[in-house]
């Protein structure tokens, strides 16, 4: 199969869909890989490394996108919609539930869109989302600590405090992969951490692991309203696989928060779990509402691209090889990839995406 690796063009996105090691696996299996020149530079991966791995370098995105299977990191932006077509297999993060224009473009072009974030195993794991959730969760605490500094609009609070001065209060909404990784860094830095979730099992797990070094609370509107009044940093870590995140912090709650407090909404890719969330970029990462700093960068792991690229490829490589070997048949045979299938032949094939836009859902590969 002909596989294309275009350069990412989203604002300050430096990750790349394939490492040279993954390319080597593909070429040794008899596949041809077209790599757009410079695609890996943001992750400190040189064109020469791709050539050594057996790839063919191409100078333009048009050629890279002409392949049978295109592997990316981030969803296509408007200028890339022209490359979508019926015979294209697109494998990347899509996050369609918060992106109606892209959804419409994929449906109109009849592109087969397979989303990393909804590939799901029989055990319910999301193997291609987990590595970036780990990165984003750990980054969220670092970013929050940064923007709590007075010169960046924050309250001027040191996350871990010092002897004789209280540490910052950190509230984490969600105890999944993002939330547990955010908690790990926040506890390590000495912050006072509270984690909310509706899963008793997840809260029990964190309580057992940290043995009193963080607090756990059941998530509901009353507990959120109570806790945010004394919180310095809120980290939104809610995930509805394939669907839009619920707004747990409403617009009317913001005035009750401390001036200079910070919200880092990692759920922004899925619409955000704060009503006032809107996507931002690494070049303009924050905005302020009612004195509360909002950080809502939709590609947080892009700030640490080398770590993120290798972490992602550790998980995607086997799926890319399967798609290259068997094309659509690999989706028919693999339930995990069927969960990843979001659009096919002009239809929405993931129920959460259909629900987000009140559109029809089509069972993929129905006889």
What are the salient characteristics of this protein?
Rossmann fold; 367 residues; alpha/beta; single chain; seven-stranded mixed sheet; eight-stranded mixed sheet; 2 domains; 12 helices
Shape: globular
Q: Report the C-alpha radius of gyration, rounded.
A: 21 Å
Q: What is the number of E strands?
A: 15
Going by helix content, strand content and strand pairing, the class is alpha/beta
Number of domains: 2
Q: Oligomeric status of the shown chains?
A: single chain
CATH topology of the largest domain: the name is Rossmann fold
Order of helices and strands: EHEHEHEEHEHEHEHEHEEEEHHHEEH
CATH C-level of the largest domain: Alpha Beta
Mean pLDDT: 96
Q: What fraction of residues sit in β-strands? A: 15-25%
Low-confidence stretches: none
For the record, give the distance between the C-alpha atoms at the N and C termini, rounded to a whole number. Answer: 26 Å
* Biggest pleated-sheet summary: 8 strands, mixed
CATH architecture type of the largest domain: 3-Layer(aba) Sandwich
């Amino acid at each position: 199969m002909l596989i294309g690796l275009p350069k990412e063009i989203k604002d300050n996105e430096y990750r790349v869909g394939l490492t040279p090691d993954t390319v080597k696996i593909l070429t040794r299996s008899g596949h041809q890989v077209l790599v757009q020149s410079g695609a890996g530079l943001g992750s400190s991966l040189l064109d020469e490394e791709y050539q050594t791995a057996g790839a063919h370098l191409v100078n333009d995105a048009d050629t890279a996108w002409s392949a049978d299977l295109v592997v990316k990191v981030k969803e296509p932006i408007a200028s890339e919609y022209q490359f979508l077509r019926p015979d294209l297999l697109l494998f990347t993060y899509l996050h369609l539930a918060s992106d109606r224009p892209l959804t419409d473009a994929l449906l109109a072009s009849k592109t087969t869109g397979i989303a990393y974030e909804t590939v799901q195993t029989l055990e319910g794991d999301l193997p291609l989302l987990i590595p970036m959730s780990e990165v984003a969760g750990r980054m969220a605490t670092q970013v929050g600590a940064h923007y709590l500094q007075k010169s960046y609009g924050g309250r001027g609070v040191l996350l871990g405090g010092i002897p004789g001065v209280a540490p910052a209060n950190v509230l984490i909404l969600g105890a999944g992969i993002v939330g547990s990784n955010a908690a790990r860094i926040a506890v390590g830095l000495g912050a006072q951490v509270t984690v909310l979730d509706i899963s008793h099992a997840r809260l029990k797990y964190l309580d057992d692991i940290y043995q009193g070094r963080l607090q756990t609370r059941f998530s509901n509107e009353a507990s959120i309203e109570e806790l945010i009044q004394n919180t310095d940093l809120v980290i939104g870590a809610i995930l509805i696989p394939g669907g839009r995140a619920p707004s747990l912090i409403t617009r009317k709650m913001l005035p009750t928060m401390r001036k200079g407090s910070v919200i880092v909404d990692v759920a922004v890719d899925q619409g955000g779990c704060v009503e006032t969330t809107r996507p931002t970029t690494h070049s303009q990462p924050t905005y302020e509402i009612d004195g509360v700093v909002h950080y809502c960068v939709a590609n947080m792991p892009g700030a640490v691209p080398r770590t993120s690229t290798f972490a992602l490829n550790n998980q995607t490589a086997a799926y890319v090889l399967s798609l290259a070997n068997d094309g659509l048949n690999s989706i028919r045979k693999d339930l995990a990839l069927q969960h990843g299938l979001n659009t096919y032949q002009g239809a929405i094939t993931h129920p959460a995406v259909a629900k987000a836009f009140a559109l029809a859902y089509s069972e993929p590969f129905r006889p």
